[in-house]
Design goal:
Layout: E1 11-19, E2 22-32, E3 35-37, E4 47-50, E5 59-67, E6 70-77
Antiparallel strand pairs: 1-2, 2-3, 2-4, 5-6
């Protein structure tokens, strides 16, 4: 059992990029309450998702568009 531990919530910011076949999330910042944590203290490696792995075999991602705070996916049949 860990004693004297603290629970804390954080907000992480990411830039998203689409480079077929990968959606890549690059960690750009972390905030705890109103305090920015320097990237030298806490930094995540880029995360890559191959979106087609989550779709039925006959369907593939054609394109990804970022609009404001949403992501629009275009599909095509294989």
């Amino acid at each position: 059992m860990v004693q004297d531990s603290w629970m804390a919530g954080a907000t992480l910011q990411f830039d998203l990029r689409w480079e077929e076949p990968y959606l890549t999330a690059v960690h750009t910042g972390t905030r705890v309450k109103q305090v920015s944590i320097p990237l030298e203290w806490f930094h995540l490696e880029p995360l890559q998702l191959q979106l087609n792995d989550y779709l039925p075999r006959r369907l593939t991602v054609r394109d990804v568009t970022f609009q404001d705070s949403s992501v629009k996916l275009g599909f095509k049949l294989r």
